[in-house]
Design goal:
alpha/beta; two-stranded antiparallel ribbon; TIM Barrel; binds NADP nicotinamide-adenine-dinucleotide phosphate; about 325 residues; about 15% strand
């Protein structure tokens, strides 16, 4: 076993098949995050061969996730490990009175990118994404500004998140897309119908978020779990009522397949994800080192065709999930 690496489109940038998703580090929706554990989680990535960190301008009310990454890597200082990491950040979404607000205007994207670089204590990121399209701004206009940031060397490659095929096309006409970031996991497979084939055809890397469906598919949340008031998961349909019961029935089936192949449920679920055709990396959120250690162990082995068939049958029995659209 060992980490696997994939190249992002034709950028020459190599990333691990498991990425550290740095949203939980900000501690906004997943309670109990501490700076100490966050720094230890990032440092653990070096041991595991995880060389890709995914963050965003809006991860934390004041950019806590980006600031913590800079502290962990000691960016901008002697002895910095910054150059060993492929850093992705995103702009175009921000917090407004506790709600997410899109702003894809060129001047905002430039300001947010420059602020992210300051927080990360670096002069460029490897990957800069439009976090989500702004309904008030044509996506081509946002893409044009990201192309300028690319040409100025503030980003080595550009990505886009939370868009459909028409927006991928419009964006790509203004600025070459290297990476696409949609939600994807065993229970959220909408991209297989359209954007995933588009990306495969255009040599765009697909890096997926929510591979563990916010921890639901990680196998450690029990049926009688009561989420804290501040935990956003208590509002999601997949964590409520019948959907919750059906999801636990599925996780029980996955647990037995996982134990048969000597892995945990989280390892099985992430392994399945990173071996789907066209998927470059799974963005696995973690706020403690043992979580990324477990998800990183998803790379470097293959499920047998018998085990894959058992997973398909379990998903068939689970039936169509009632998932709300992302963002
Ligand atoms: N582009 C976008 O719009 C967008 C949107 C969402 C996310 N993302 C990116 O994708 C990443 C992943 O999303 P996510 O963090 O929301 O969800 P996720 O990876 O599906 O789930 C993360 C949660 O699962 C639990 N977990 C992780 N590893 C575990 C393990 N080994 N055992 C048990 N539980 C484990 C943790 O919850 P507890 O610590 O609470 O137990 C963790 O907070 C984000 O960090 C971010 O980088 C991007």
């Amino acid at each position: 076993m060992g980490m696997e690496y994939r190249t992002l489109g034709d950028s020459g940038i190599e990333i691990s098949a498991v990425t550290l998703g740095c949203w939980p580090l900000a501690g906004m929706t997943s309670p109990g995050a501490t700076d100490e554990n966050g720094i230890a989680t990032i440092n653990e990535c070096f041991e595991l061969g995880v060389n890709h960190l995914d963050t965003a301008y809006m991860y934390g009310a004041e950019g806590e996730s980006e600031l913590l990454i800079a502290r962990a890597l000691k960016s901008g200082r002697k002895g910095s490990r910054r150059d060993e990491m492929v850093i992705a950040t995103k702009g175009g979404l921000h917090w407004e009175g506790g709600e997410r607000g899109p702003d894809g205007r060129p001047e905002t994207l430039r300001r947010e990118c420059e602020e992210s670089l300051r927080r990360l204590a670096t002069d460029r990121v490897e990957l800069y994404y439009l976090h989500a399209p702004d309904p008030k701004v044509p996506v081509a206009e946002s893409a044009g500004e990201l192309k300028r940031l690319l040409d100025e060397g503030k980003a080595r490659a550009i990505g886009v998140s939370n868009v459909g095929v028409a927006q991928l096309e419009a964006f790509n006409a203004e600025c070459p897309i290297t990476a696409y970031q949609p939600p994807y996991n065993m229970l959220q497979r909408e991209i297989e119908a359209d954007t995933l084939p588009w990306c495969r055809e255009h040599n765009v890397a697909v890096l997926v978020y929510w591979p563990l469906l916010k921890g639901l598919l990680a196998g450690s949340i029990t049926r009688d779990t009561v989420f804290a008031e501040t935990d956003s998961r208590r509002k999601y349909r997949m964590f409520l009522g019948q959907e919750w019961e059906k999801n636990h029935d599925l996780v029980d089936e996955l647990r037995s397949i996982a134990s048969e192949c000597g892995h945990t449920v989280a390892e099985l679920v992430v392994n399945w994800t990173i071996n789907r055709p066209g998927i470059s990396s799974a963005l696995c959120g973690a706020k403690r080192p043992e979580q990324i250690r477990e998800t990183a162990a998803a790379a470097g082995w293959k499920l047998s065709s018998r085990q894959l068939a058992k997973i398909d049958a379990a998903l068939e029995r689970r039936g169509k999930p009632d998932v709300e659209p992302p963002v």
